[in-house]
């Protein structure tokens, strides 16, 4: 489906394709203009419980559909057998320890906090034991726990460790889903917050040491989960009230991809013409036309998570803008105001000056730019420091809480 390379088309649910039927329903509580109404934590938790009940009912219906598929019976986030083994091996994460036993020689695990680890498939290992598999409703509760109590916690830090723990446990959730062939509404309900978490992490941890965060690994899993989610939309019966949001996020994250563009153009007209998708298409067109001024202007209309999805393309976009101006205003007697270019770049003046200097553009004492196409140079990647130029994204975050962002309540 999406992505510029082949791995995006290899989602776990791509083995069978049913006739494409996509829900065109809109989010009931969404205001006009495609902006989601901000909900507080209490409102989310009420909605989350209702969603879990829907997943439980849907799961009971699916159990009658295919008796040969393994069905999990574990009702806790971590199977009791695994919890005992990890206690004996002293392999519990500090987020999973029972309060008061942290300093013991062999700390105990808290059944309410321990979460099943991701484990690689191994020869002779039975991964289909129902007591070790969590049904979809428990998987959704696990994802909500990882978001509300781990990722969104203000007490747990550093966030690189928070991410590492949540990322591994979400891989375990995905593994249980694949073994049980979870699909339809169950699948979408679990994948949506997972995709949001990975998109948010790609922005928040941008520039961190590879020892703490590998953007390529995060990208691989984000593409796989996004592909699987969009496949759920295409093959399921719905309703999928968040489909517009994720169709737009998929295009913004894979900006310039022919496959991503084709996927959007094949959507039903009413979905393709929705506000979020229309804006994403306009930004994608500006990217393909190498029109960075229009792209950056449109990017100011994105919400925070959409900006996170777009942010990895901003370095090349700003580079194109500086290159165009270096050719268009290349003259000994021509001066261009730094403030004007900073506004176009969506950066403050000091960062705009630093960016221009990195590309060989002179900044004189009067804060004016002296462009010269001969002086334009390609800096080393390390000198760009993408994290320094996150203004356009950070301004959109404002007071949004991590939990609200990942639950789609912004």
Automatic annotation (TrEMBL):
Residues 1-68, 102-133 are annotated as: Disordered. Residues 26-44, 51-65, 102-119 have a biased composition (Basic and acidic residues). It comes from the Eukaryota. GO terms for biological process: centrosome duplication; spindle assembly. One of its GO terms (cellular component) is nucleus. Residues 77-364 form the SAC3/GANP/THP3 conserved domain. It holds the Pfam family SAC3_GANP. This is LOW QUALITY PROTEIN: SAC3 domain-containing protein 1. It comes from Cottoperca gobio (Frogmouth).
């Amino acid at each position: 489906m999406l992505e510029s390379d082949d791995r995006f088309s290899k989602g776990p649910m791509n083995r069978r394709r049913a006739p494409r039927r996509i829900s065109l329903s809109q989010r009931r509580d969404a205001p006009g203009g495609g902006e989601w109404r901000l909900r507080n934590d209490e409102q989310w938790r009420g909605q989350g419980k209702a969603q879990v009940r829907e997943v439980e009912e849907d799961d009971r219906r699916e159990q009658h559909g295919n008796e040969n598929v393994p069905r999990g019976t574990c009702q806790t986030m971590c199977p009791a057998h695994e919890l005992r083994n990890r206690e004996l091996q002293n392999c519990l994460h500090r987020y999973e320890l029972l309060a008061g036993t942290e300093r013991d020689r062999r700390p105990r695990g808290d059944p309410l906090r321990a979460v099943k680890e991701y484990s690689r498939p191994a020869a002779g290992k039975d991964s289909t034991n129902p007591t070790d598999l969590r049904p979809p409703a428990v998987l959704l509760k696990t994802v909500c726990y990882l978001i509300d109590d781990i990722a969104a916690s203000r007490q747990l830090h550093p966030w690189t460790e928070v991410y590492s723990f949540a990322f591994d446990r979400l891989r375990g959730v995905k593994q249980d889903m694949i073994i049980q062939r979870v699909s339809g509404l169950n699948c979408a309900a679990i994948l949506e917050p997972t995709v949001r978490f990975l998109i948010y992490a790609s922005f928040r941890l941008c520039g961190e040491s590879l020892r703490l965060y590998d953007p390529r690994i995060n990208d691989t899993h984000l593409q796989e989960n996004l592909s699987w989610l969009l496949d759920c939309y295409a093959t399921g019966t719905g309703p999928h009230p968040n489909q517009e949001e994720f169709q737009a996020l998929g295009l913004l994250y894979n900006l310039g991809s022919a496959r991503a563009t084709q996927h959007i153009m094949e959507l039903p007209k009413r979905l393709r013409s929705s506000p979020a998708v229309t804006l994403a298409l306009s930004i994608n067109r500006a990217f393909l036309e190498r029109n960075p001024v229009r792209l950056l202007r449109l990017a100011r209309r994105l919400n925070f998570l959409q900006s996170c999805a777009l942010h990895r393309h901003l370095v090349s976009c700003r580079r194109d803008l500086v290159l165009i101006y270096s050719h268009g205003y290349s003259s000994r007697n021509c001066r261009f105001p730094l403030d004007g270019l900073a506004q176009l770049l969506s950066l403050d003046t000091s960062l705009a000056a630093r960016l221009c200097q990195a590309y060989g553009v002179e900044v004189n004492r009067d804060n004016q730019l002296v462009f010269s196409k001969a002086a334009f140079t390609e800096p080393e990647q390390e000198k760009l420091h993408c994290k320094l130029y996150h203004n356009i994204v950070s301004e959109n975050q404002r007071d949004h809480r991590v939990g609200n962002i990942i639950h789609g309540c912004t």
